[in-house]
Design goal:
By secondary structure, the protein is α+β, with helices and mostly antiparallel strands. The protein is built from 11 helices and 16 strands. β1 (about 5-10), α1 (about 20-35) and β2 form a beta-alpha-beta unit. α1 (about 20-35) crosses α6. The longest helix has 25 residues, at about 140-165. The mean pLDDT is about 90.
């Protein structure tokens, strides 16, 4: 199956030594270029903070559905904010793009995501405004999540610096990528994969998350104790388990950064698989995770960086406006296309 490469980014967290940062950037670059993903250590988010976040998520998703629906995700691609109930999102629609057979396409076309989510962005994003639960429904939820968003944004920008440094870009191209990837455009998702009883497992259409590639620049993935996240080995096509490990977050490159890097960084195929039932239980436990998507603005143009094109000898991707791509993909995953 293979092993997900590991990289330590501590040199980009509170360190300014140029040699250490260059070495760390090379290690991250070497790791990510293998399968488009890496296990990241030295990111500076302590385990206690993550456990507090997961405890807050449990309180959120334990609320009755009518209460959670007081901050509903709109029935549209934008804004991508608020609560989505179970089976509304259909990640199989994205998986169809990468399907190898007609039978697989037919299965994914009917697949239902057995999960619920809550999407949060930057408070200053005027294009995609947050949808918050009323304070009387969940006191303290908004300020807590705003603070968590800020902490994860800082980690994301540290990783951006490492990825940029590893690409051997011109100074101009480096600055362009920095200007595009501001925290205002980032997105944090709170994901709750529901328990699966024997009755639930009788429905073959129930999945957790179909194989797909992200349409962000890259994603940071924080997990609680239950496993399921898997990345595809680009050489064998098999999937590698991203086992929840204290002190480790998982990074995967998305389609947007593959385009910006002209293919230097490959977008990672990944999924959340349904784990086997353990010997001492008949129900597969619930799972909590926090994907943090590093995005660009909807009006940005996605195109290969000129200095990468010069180094590679050709442009491997055409230009496209991010809003066009987002509309197409969000509409697909919400079953509108």
């Amino acid at each position: 199956m293979g092993i997900i490469p590991t990289a330590d980014i501590s040199a980009f967290i509170g360190c300014s030594d140029a040699e250490q940062r260059q070495a760390a950037a090379k290690a991250l670059t070497d790791a990510v270029r293998v399968h488009g993903c890496a296990a990241i250590t030295g990111h500076g988010i302590h385990e206690d903070a993550l456990q507090d976040a997961f405890a807050m998520m449990r309180r959120l998703f334990d609320l009755p559905v009518p209460e959670k629906m007081k901050a509903p995700h709109p029935d549209s691609a934008i804004p991508h904010r608020g609560y989505l109930a179970k089976t509304v999102e259909k990640s199989g629609k994205l998986g169809i793009v990468h399907s190898k057979s007609e039978s697989e396409k037919a299965f994914l076309d009917n697949a239902l995501d057995w999960k619920e989510t809550y999407d949060i962005g930057h408070e200053d994003n005027d294009t995609q405004k947050n949808r918050w639960l009323p304070d009387e429904v969940f006191p303290g939820f908004r300020p807590y999540m705003v603070q968590l968003f800020e902490r994860l944004s800082a980690v994301s920008l540290a990783i951006l610096e490492a990825l940029i440094l590893g690409m051997n870009l011109s100074t101009e191209d480096k600055n362009v990528l920095r200007q595009m990837h501001t925290p205002v455009e980032h997105q944090m998702r709170l994901a709750h994969y529901l328990p699966m009883s024997p009755e639930h497992r009788k429905d073959p259409n129930k999945i957790r998350l179909a194989p797909h590639k992200d349409f962000a620049s890259y994603t940071l993935l924080f997990q609680e104790s239950e496993s399921g996240l898997e990345f595809q080995n680009r050489e064998t096509g098999e999937y590698m388990a991203a086992t929840p490990t204290e002190g480790v977050l998982y990074l995967n490159i998305g389609d947007i950064f593959e385009w910006y890097s002209n293919g230097f960084y490959p977008s990672a195929m990944h999924r959340v698989a349904i784990p086997p039932v353990k010997a001492d239980q008949d129900t597969i436990p619930e799972r909590f995770s926090i994907p943090f998507f590093t995005n660009v603005g909807l009006d940005e143009l996605i195109y290969p960086m000129p200095s990468r094109v010069q180094a590679d000898g050709t442009a491997n991707y055409q230009s496209i406006k991010y809003s066009e791509l987002a509309e197409r993909l969000f509409s697909s995953v919400l079953g509108k296309a």
